[in-house]
Automatic annotation (TrEMBL):
Species, as recorded: Panicum virgatum
Gene Ontology biological process terms, A to Z: cell surface receptor signaling pathway
InterPro entries documented for this protein: Adaptor_Cbl_N_dom_sf (IPR036537), MLKL-like_MCAfunc (IPR059179), MLKL_N (IPR054000)
Residue ranges of every copy of the Mixed lineage kinase domain listed in the record: 12-119
PANTHER family to which the protein is assigned, alphabetical: OS06G0314501 PROTEIN, OS12G0248400 PROTEIN-RELATED
Name the record gives this protein: Mixed lineage kinase domain-containing protein
Length: 341
């Protein structure tokens, strides 16, 4: 099936590049433009990974998502372009509309990134399952090499042949499985041909089975993410949207950590450390700035510019956590598919 979404990636990368460049020159809404810039940079990283892999679990869904992203980036480009000129005295209505447009674009980017994260995690699970299957293939290769099939009693050999005869004779069977099937058949009849066929059990199972709790840094990251998820549950109205987004990202980090098998933690130590710092910063920020339960005066203290500053800081930390999560996810996928990350 043709990969129809690939041409879209190049187009979107060009639009994203213009958005990032223009946000750095904004004369109005500079803080909002900076937040938008960070999110678009995260999208750019994902688009480049897509362009390199040229494969996703669901090509049609990917195309639909990219089409939506095309519209959103178009609106983001127009929005940033309007921020390249200084505000005039009569421009209050335009300013009000821009504030709403920033919120809309940010919300749409969140929806699109959620689709990308889901696709990445689906791919990660598919690849991980395939990697787990290879462990059993290593065991099977070792048993065949050791002559296990050859040493079976005749009645057991007949039973194995009976089960093998029920397998569909399909040309679509993967070459490795077909080769193993042929080797088992020959070994049952005449002895082990594994060595002379050059198909020894040389594949290594690696370091599977190591839990992230064995790595003190990953354990710390997991503890912080879990604490952040719990802390977010106590939030009622204080910057709730920003906090819940950070909590959702922390939950994704928790799901990702078991897939960070050696040597990935060592190779990506800087990214993991930054992710740990961001999670800790978010946790401290949310815990420290809970709404005070001291009467109406406390609510007054939390209002205005101070509350907006807190929301901006939480949003910045969320963007950084999302960037770290995405980077590590792509590294895991790359490691599984190529053995190099």
């Amino acid at each position: 099936m043709p990969v129809e979404w690939i041409p879209l990636v190049g187009i979107l990368l060009n639009v994203a590049s213009r958005v990032v460049e223009n946000t750095g020159e904004a004369l109005r809404y500079r803080k909002k433009c900076q937040l938008l810039r960070t999110r678009v940079q995260i999208i750019t990283t994902h688009l480049r990974a897509l362009n390199e892999a040229q494969w996703t679990p669901d090509p049609l869904a990917t195309k639909d998502t990219l089409e939506c992203l095309r519209q959103v980036l178009g609106r983001a480009e127009a929005l940033v372009a309007s921020c390249l000129r200084r505000k005039k005295a009569f421009d209050f209505l335009k300013a009000f509309r821009n504030k709403g447009e920033f919120a809309f674009v940010d919300e749409q980017i969140s929806h699109i990134m959620e689709a990308f994260h889901l696709a990445n995690y689906t791919l990660l699970l598919l690849l991980s399952n395939d990697r787990d299957d290879r462990i059993f293939m290593v065991v099977l290769d070792t048993l065949i090499e050791d002559g296990a099939c050859r040493r079976l009693p005749q009645n057991k050999k007949d039973e194995v042949f009976k089960h093998m005869s029920g397998l569909p004779q399909s040309d679509n069977m993967p070459p490795e499985k077909r080769k193993r099937l042929d080797l088992i058949t020959r070994d049952l009849r005449a002895g082990s041909y594994l060595r002379q066929c050059g198909f020894a059990g040389s594949t290594s199972s690696g370091n599977r089975g190591q839990n992230h709790n064995d790595d003190p840094v990953l354990k710390k990251v997991a503890d912080l993410a879990e604490a952040l998820v719990e802390e977010a549950k106590a939030v009622r109205s204080h910057n709730k949207e920003e906090v819940q987004r950070v909590a959702q990202l922390a939950q994704k980090v928790i799901y990702l950590l078991p897939h960070l098998q050696p040597p990935l933690p060592t190779r990506n130590q800087e990214t993991i450390t930054e992710l740990q710092d961001d999670l800790n910063g978010a946790l401290q920020n949310i815990a420290q700035h809970r709404p005070l339960q001291c009467g109406p005066s406390a609510l007054t203290l939390r209002a205005g510019s101070f509350r907006r500053q807190e929301a901006k800081r939480i949003a910045e930390l969320g963007n950084s956590i999302e960037k770290g999560y995405q980077t590590l996810t792509l590294k895991v996928v790359q490691h599984i598919t190529t053995g190099n990350a």
